[in-house]
Write a structure and sequence with these properties.
The longest helix is centred in the N-terminal third of the chain and has 71 residues, at about 1-70. It is rod-shaped and about 105 Å long. It starts with a helix and ends in a 7-residue tail after the last helix. The model has no long low-confidence stretch (mean pLDDT about 90). With about 120 residues, the chain is an all-alpha fold. The protein has one domain (about 25-115). The chain has helices spanning about 1-70, 75-95, 100-115.
C-alpha cells in the first residue's frame, strides 16, 4: 500500500515536471518570437525611414548644387562643392564617429530587445 502511494507520487511528480518543462519551453519560444518580431519590425522601420531620408537628402543635395552653380556661374562648381562637403563629412565620421555610432545603435536595440515595459 505504501509502495503504491510512493509510486503514484513519483509518477505524479514526473508528470508535473514534464508539464513544467513543456510550459517553460513554450514560454521561451514565445518570448524569443516576440523579441525577434520586435527586432524585425524595428529593422523594417529603420530601412523605410533610411530610404525616405536618403531620397530626400539626394533631392536636396541636387537642389543645393544647382543653386550654388547658378550663384557661382559655373555649371559644375555647385556639384563639386556639395560633393566635397559630403566627402568631408565622410572623413570626419570615419575618424571620429565609430564610438558614438556604436553607442547609439547599442542603446537603440537594447531598448527594443530589453523593453522594461514588457516585464511579466
Amino acid at each position: 500500500m505504501a509502495f503504491e502511494k510512493l509510486s503514484d507520487s513519483v509518477h505524479d511528480l514526473n508528470d508535473s515536471i514534464q508539464a513544467f518543462m513543456h510550459s517553460n519551453v513554450e514560454y521561451y519560444k514565445l518570448k524569443a518570437f516576440k523579441q525577434g518580431m520586435k527586432g524585425a519590425t524595428s529593422l523594417v522601420r529603420f530601412l523605410i525611414m533610411g530610404f525616405l531620408l536618403s531620397t530626400a537628402g539626394i533631392l536636396i543635395s541636387f537642389a543645393i548644387a544647382i543653386l550654388l552653380s547658378e550663384a557661382i556661374g559655373t555649371p559644375s562648381a555647385g556639384y563639386f562643392i556639395v560633393g566635397g562637403f559630403y566627402l568631408l563629412v565622410l572623413i570626419l565620421i570615419y575618424i571620429f564617429g565609430k564610438e558614438p555610432i556604436e553607442k547609439l545603435v547599442l542603446r537603440k536595440f537594447s531598448k527594443v530587445v530589453f523593453d522594461e515595459k514588457d516585464k511579466e
